[in-house]
Amino acid sequence: KAGVTQTPRYLIKTRGQQVTLSCSPISGHRSVSWYQQTPGQGLQFLFEYFSETQRNKGNFPGRFSGRQFSNSRSEMNVSTLELGDSALYLCASSPDPSSYEQYFGPGTRLTVT
Amino acid sequence: QQQVKQSPQSLIVQKGGISIINCAYENTAFDYFPWYQQFPGKGPALLIAIRPDVSEKKEGRFTISFNKSAKQFSLHIMDSQPGDSATYFCAASINSGYALNFGKGTSLLVTP
Questions:
Q1: What is the structure's pLDDT at B99?
Q2: Cα B66 from chain centroid (whole Å)
Q3: How far apart, in whole angstroms, are the C-alpha atoms of residue B65 and residue B68?
Q4: Are A63 and A43 in contact, with CB atoms under 8 Å apart?
Q5: CB of A66 closer than 8 Å to CB of B20
Q6: Is 80 exceeded by the pLDDT of residue B2?
Q7: A55 in contact with B at a CB cutoff of 8 Å?
Q8: In terms of Cα–Cα distance, which of B55, B52, B61 is closest to B15?
Q9: Residue B1 has what pLDDT?
Q10: Mean pLDDT calculated for residue range B78-88
Q11: Which of A4, A30, A68, A102 to mutate to test the interface with B (most CBs of B within 10 A)?
Q12: How far is residue B79 CA from its own chain's centroid?
C-alpha cells in the first residue's frame, strides 16, 4: 500500500501571503490529522478530520484552517503568513476513529521569508 | 504546557549497547502511548505502542516499559545498531489516538 503523500514537499512564501498544503491518506484510511513540527516547539497538533468534519482542534490561531474532502484527502491553509509559521507540516492518517495508530507522511517544509 | 516530558535530549550509545529513553506524563486520562522514530527529511514512523493495561511490550529489539503508578514509560533498544541513529519521540493521547501529545524528542547516535 502506498503511504501518506503530501504535496508540495517544499514551499517558500513571503510574509503576509497564504498557503495551501495537501495530504492524501493511505488508501482506505478515513481520518486525517495535521501537525506542525518546529525545533523550538516540537510536534504540535493542529486539527483532525473524519468524514469531512473537524473533530478536534489544537491551540493554533484562526489563521490555520483545514478541510477534508469526500475521498478523505485533506488540505490545510495558513493565511497571512508570519515568519514563525516556518515549519515542517505533517499529515497523519488513520483507518477510522476507533483506531489508535497514526501513520505520518513525509511532510511539507514551509519557509516564510 | 508540555504534557509529556522526554529525556535525555540526546544520547550516544556504542554499537551493541542498550539505548534507553524515558518519558513522563501528568494526565492520567492518557490511554495510548506510542513511540515514533524519525530520520532526517522523513516523517515520524510508528515504532511500537502500549496501552496502560500492560507493563511491557516487546517487538524485536524494541521494548516499551510502562509504570502506571509513576506515570512513566520508557523505550529500550537492545543491541543498538548504527542504523538506529535517529530522533525518537514518545507521545500520549486520549481516546483512540487523536491529538497525540509528543515529547520533545531524543536524538540517538549509535557509534560503530
A1: 84
A2: 11
A3: 10
A4: no
A5: no
A6: no
A7: yes
A8: B61
A9: 66
A10: 98
A11: A102
A12: 16
